[in-house]
Design goal:
Elements (H helix, E strand, L loop, with lengths): L1 E2 L7 H18 L7 H11 L2 E2 L13 H26 L5 H8 L16
Helix pairs in contact: 1-2, 1-3
Length: 118
């Protein structure tokens, strides 16, 4: 599956995804009863994926391996969210503008038809 662009996935959403995955873990480990299709759907609502035209039933998180993969995905997203929060605190405006400012670089549009544009 291809992961879709997530935009900004905040701390609250990440915490909810961990809770959803913990519920799935309890069902996979047979500690509790639950509908893995529904629980997986809750997870994919917060962390969307592009399944194309395939059936959702193929993507139900119903094994330890699938669960581990999704936990790693959420951990990675948490790391990205943390890094993004640090970068965004570093300056005003967008992250891209902030990074160029740190490099003492200016961005100027290139005129169409010039040698630089080609």
């Amino acid at each position: 599956t291809k992961k879709m662009p997530l935009g900004k996935l905040g701390r609250e959403a990440l915490e909810k995804t961990y809770k959803d995955l913990r519920k799935i873990e309890e069902v996979v480990d047979k500690k509790k009863k639950g509908d893995l299709m529904e629980l997986s759907g809750d997870f994919y609502t917060l962390v969307p994926h592009d399944f194309g035209f395939q059936k959702m039933s193929q993507f139900v998180i119903n094994t330890k391996e699938k669960l581990k993969e999704k936990l790693q995905t959420v951990e990675f997203l948490g790391d990205l969210e943390f890094a993004n929060s640090i970068i965004s605190k570093a300056g005003d405006g967008s992250i891209v503008d902030s990074n160029y400012k740190k490099l003492n670089a200016d961005i100027e549009p290139v005129e169409q038809g010039t040698d630089e544009y080609e």
